[in-house]
């Protein structure tokens, strides 16, 4: 169709420009390569980094969309080091700036920030550096508020511009400009005047998530209609994505993790991410007892202890680091063969980034998530419900390609057939398949428990709800007419998650001085279910019957033959054939 031709045309021309800029014959190219190694201690650039650097070093406006953890900062830090003058970086959060400043300090790159806590003396030295041609300052970080509110600072920028020291303007998290985006910051709007004030200064905008709407809006707001746009793919073809139901007890969870590590990753390096410090300590000693050389890493350990573990892991003396998210910065071990999430991350971005520490060497590696509802309920205090439900939807899905879901999250168009069997839902050898079950009555029972609780003035957490459903816990929460359910705890968990996601249940948060409690209430759609004749069926993931095909004893080489389109089709139909066989077993 015409549409298809147009689309292909625009994609190929996009590729042309990306190739055009992917060159090493610019005036700055050899300096850039030298400094990459000598200053940043990195071997080579990642996809789209060179293109972005070349555009901005050519003095042109550019926007780069790259997933979190992809390496956006280097795209302006390295150009800042090879450029004359100062790179002004606008960043929405002081904490983000501090992370970068710390890393730059370790590399001996002169960078600083100007904010409310800057002393007068420091400010004076910064202002001097802005206009003094002998100054060594390379990067200056500010919040958009600083730009919008400080006339004095704008005045200094004018001077810096006049003496030719305003090398470029970098806007990190550039989607914050747009009201269409998910975290609009009014002060980012002010950045619209920068192009008018400083027409010769190239603007570089960076973001991880941007839809077409947001991008068009951002271009308009910043007055850079012709900026070069690059999009680095979220796709990491060598990573195999998988979600598994998390066993009910810690011991069972540890047994399963042990089995995975010893059967498939024997002698290989990996990371196990845990929710809390306490969890990571428990899991470390559990794995150690099971004969797996592991070390623990979290923010409450001394920095010596942390670098000791990191070092032992880097050198292979410890194979598994069991960590909280504190284990993140500066991890560049290439041969990480697996990342296991003992508890789910707090957002899709986090999950993507943490999983992405596997397989930097481009060899096949696995990213395994253990999911259970209770683990997602503890995050609500730090993160928005939207993040939480995003990851809940990812975990509960029993059919869609994991890559498609990640792509959708990052606003990238993606053809599921390109997954090549590298996720649990596309994998022809997966030991899991799905089976559809009518859950209407289960949902009604859950709502009946809540109704009685409301009538008797009781509040119910997800945990108590499930207990009552299983005939356990407080007698006052039990409902006479409901038979104790015979489904598995795992399925019960999934049903509650499904009901939350789909508006049959909702959470009601209560904040105390120490913690946030989430109570469960009937959701806005509860009545549709209770009063109407709505049927709900859900596709559960189940272990395939006769799945004798045990998992590969060692990770397959990256060049395993790829399943053809035909075999994908056969897979789908054989799946539905085995369906009947499965559903009889699955309700146990
Ligand atoms: P983003 O801003 O896109 O989320 P960062 O700029 O914080 O990502 O970079 C994430 C990590 O990737 C950092 O630890 C950084 O040192 C590392 N990194 C960036 N570019 C490269 C590269 N070319 N080679 C190796 N590591 C890199
Ligand atoms: Mg960043």
Describe the structure.
The chain contains 22 helices and 17 strands. The strands form 4 sheets. It has a 7-stranded parallel beta sheet with strand order 3-4-2-5-6-1-7. Strands 8-13-12-9-11-10 form a 6-stranded parallel beta sheet. Helix 14 links the parallel strand 12 (336-341) and strand 13. Helix 2 (29-38) crosses helix 4, helix 16 packs across helix 20 and helix 18 packs across helix 19. The chain is α/β, with parallel strands linked by helices. It is globular and about 80 Å long. Bound molecules: adenosine-5'-diphosphate and magnesium ion. Adenosine-5'-diphosphate binds at residues 42, 45-46, 49, 66, 68-74, 330, 332.
Pick out its properties:
binds magnesium ion; binds adenosine-5'-diphosphate; disordered C terminus; alpha/beta; 588 residues; 41% helix
């Amino acid at each position: 169709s015409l549409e298809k031709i147009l689309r292909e045309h625009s994609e190929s021309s996009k590729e042309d420009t990306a190739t055009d800029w992917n060159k090493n014959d610019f005036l700055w190219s050899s300096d850039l390569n030298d400094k990459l190694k000598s200053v940043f201690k990195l071997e080579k650039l990642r996809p789209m980094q060179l293109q972005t650097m070349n555009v901005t070093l050519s003095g042109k406006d550019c926007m780069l969309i790259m997933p979190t953890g992809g390496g956006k900062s280097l795209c302006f830090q390295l150009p800042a080091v090879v450029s004359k003058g100062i790179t002004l970086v606008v960043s929405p959060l002081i904490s983000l700036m501090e992370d970068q400043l710390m890393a730059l300090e370790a590399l001996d790159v002169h960078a600083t920030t100007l904010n409310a806590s800057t002393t007068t003396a420091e400010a004076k030295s910064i202002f001097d550096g802005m206009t003094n041609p002998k100054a060594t300052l390379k990067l200056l970080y500010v919040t958009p508020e600083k730009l919008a509110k400080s006339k004095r600072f704008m005045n200094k920028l004018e001077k810096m511009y006049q003496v030719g020291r305003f090398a470029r303007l970098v806007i990190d998290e550039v989607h914050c400009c747009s009201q269409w985006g998910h975290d609009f910051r009014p002060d980012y709007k002010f950045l619209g005047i920068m192009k008018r004030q400083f027409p010769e200064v190239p603007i570089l905008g960076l973001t991880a998530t941007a839809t077409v709407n947001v991008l068009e809006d951002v271009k308009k707001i910043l007055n850079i209609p012709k900026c070069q746009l690059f999009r680095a793919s979220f796709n990491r073809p060598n990573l195999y994505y998988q979600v598994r139901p998390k066993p009910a007890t810690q011991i069972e969870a540890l047994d399963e993790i042990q089995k995975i590590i010893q059967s498939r990753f024997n002698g290989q390096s990996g990371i196990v991410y845990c929710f809390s410090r306490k969890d990571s300590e428990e899991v470390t000693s559990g794995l150690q007892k099971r004969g797996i050389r592991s070390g623990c890493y979290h923010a409450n350990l001394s920095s010596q202890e942390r670098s000791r573990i990191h070092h032992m892991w880097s050198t292979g003396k410890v194979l598994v680091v069991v960590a909280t998210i504190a284990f993140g910065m500066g991890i560049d071990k290439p041969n990480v063969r697996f990342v296991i999430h003992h508890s789910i991350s707090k957002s899709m971005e986090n999950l993507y980034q943490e999983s992405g520490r596997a397989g930097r060497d481009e060899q096949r590696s696995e990213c395994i998530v253990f999911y259970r509802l209770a683990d997602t309920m503890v995050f609500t205090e730090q993160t928005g419900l939207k993040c939480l439900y995003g990851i809940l939807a990812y975990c509960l899905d029993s059919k869609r390609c994991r890559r498609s879901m990640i792509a959708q999250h990052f606003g990238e168009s993606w053809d599921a057939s390109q997954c090549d069997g590298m996720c649990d839902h596309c994998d022809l050898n997966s030991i899991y398949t799905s089976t559809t079950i009518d859950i209407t009555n289960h949902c009604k029972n859950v709502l009946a428990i809540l109704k009685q609780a409301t009538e008797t003035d009781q509040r119910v957490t997800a945990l108590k709800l499930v207990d009552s459903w299983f005939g356990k816990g407080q007698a006052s929460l039990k409902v006479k007419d409901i038979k104790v359910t015979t489904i598995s705890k795992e399925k019960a968990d999934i049903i509650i998650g499904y009901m939350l996601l789909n508006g049959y249940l909702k959470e009601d948060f209560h904040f105390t001085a120490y913690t946030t409690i989430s109570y469960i209430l009937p959701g806005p759609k509860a009545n549709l279910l209770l009063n109407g004749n709505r049927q709900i069926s859900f596709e559960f993931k189940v272990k395939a019957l006769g799945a004798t095909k045990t998992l590969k004893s060692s990770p397959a080489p990256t060049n395993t033959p790829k399943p053809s389109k035909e075999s994908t089709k056969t897979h789908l139909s054989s799946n539905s054939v085995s369906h009947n066989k499965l559903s009889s077993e699955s309700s146990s």
